[in-house]
Amino acid sequence: MRIPSGVTDQYIYFVAVDATDLKSRETGLSSFTVYRSRNGAAAAAMTTPTINETDGTNMPGVYELLLDEDMTIGSGNDSEEMAFHITASGMAPVTRVIELYRPKVTAGYTLGVGSDGDLLEVNTLTSHTAQTGDSYARIGAAGASLTDLGGMSTGMKAEVNAEADTALSDYDPPTKAELDSGLAGLNDITVASILTTQMTESYAADGAAPTLAQALMLIQQQIGEFAISGTTLTVKKVDGSTTAATFTLDDGASPTSITRAT
Fold first, then answer.
1. Which long-range contacts (CB under 8 A, 24 or more apart) does 109-113 make?
2. pLDDT at 187
3. CA end-to-end span of the chain, whole Å?
4. How much is the pTM?
5. For position 52, what pLDDT does the model report?
6. What does the alpha-carbon distance between residue 190 and residue 168 come to, in Å, rounded to a whole number?
7. Buried (b) or exposed (e) across 43-54, using 16+ Cβ within 10 A?
8. What is the spatial distance between Cα 178 and Cα 172, in angstroms, rounded to a whole number?
9. What is the torsion angle, in degrees rounded to the nearest 10, for the CA atoms of residue 96, residue 102, residue 105 and residue 108?
10. What DSSP element (H or E) covers 163?
11. For FRET with 118, which of 23, 131, 203, 242 sits at 20 to 30 Å CA-CA?
12. Which residues in 149-183 are b (16+ Cβ under 10 Å) and which e?
């Protein structure tokens, strides 16, 4: 039988039989002597063992011993065995063994859990001491000392304003003169500047997408600076001698198609 450590209201049953024939059940016994031993300790007599006869008529020979002495296990142990040796005049000795164990979960109140997983209201705090310290004094009963909860208090507004002033003071924005100087370096682009500004000569590689300037340069040079030899059309650069690109004609005499080669 397992008994939680510290519990002193549990009984164990035993059967009393005749000391001579070892089978006849004995009824009406009294003046029992009980020795106990826990976890290997020396036998010790129970001071006032409480033993009741369960029912001499319907359960003859059955007795119950109250376990109310030395029922707390030693520190650091989770379980201990305990033996009880019971004797009485005319009865064969009886030995009963129990296990004392340390409960892993202590008894107490059960918290309810709602369908959303939140804990339900806790109505009672056992051994709880009401708090009346500094926080309680500031908040007051039912929050009576709390004021201006609908917005920022005057003190909070002053602190925020001070922080904002400090941030603005630390920021060093450019002056108008600094802005004018910085913007002066930017060119105001006009249609005239686009149409009259000389382009830098450049040609896209064969198979590569050209820039606008590269496309215009190749178109200009293919119109005005080219030479045909057999099925090869060579386009010259602006200098008139350096090759800018070459094209292959499908026929040297009567071409009907052209494709870029280099």
1. none
2. 66
3. 101
4. 0.43
5. 97
6. 39
7. eeebeebebebe
8. 12
9. 80
10. helix 154-170
11. 131
12. eeeeeeeeeeeeeeeeeeeeeeeeeeeeeeeeeee
Domain ranges of the chain: 2-101, 200-260
Contacts of 237 (CB under 8 A, 6+ apart): 201, 203, 221, 225, 243, 244
CA 216, CA 244: separation in Å to the nearest integer? 13
pLDDT tens for 76-92 read: 999 999 999 999 999 99
Please tell me the distance from the alpha carbon of residue 124 to that of residue 103, in angstroms, as a whole number.
23
**Which candidate, 58, 56, 71, places its Cα nearest to that of 11?**
71
CA–CA gap between residue 8 and residue 68 (Å, rounded) = 4
Q: What is the pLDDT of residue 81?
A: 97
Classify 2-101 by CATH class: mainly beta
What are the tokens at 115?
């369908």
Q: What is the mean pLDDT of the chain?
A: 88
Whole-number pLDDT of residue 27: 97
Name the residue with higher pLDDT: 154 or 31. 31
CB 98, CB 36: distance < 8 Å = no
Average pLDDT in the 105-121 region? 68
Pair 37, 83: CB distance under 8 Å: yes
- How is the beta sheet containing 51-55 ordered, strand by strand? 10-15, 59-67, 51-55
What is the rounded CA–CA span in Å between residue 209 and residue 199?
Answer: 18
The stretch 71-75 carries a mean pLDDT of: 94
Map tokens 């009984």 to a residue: 11
Q: Which amino acid is at 18?
A: D
In angstroms, the CA 180 to CA 175 distance is 9
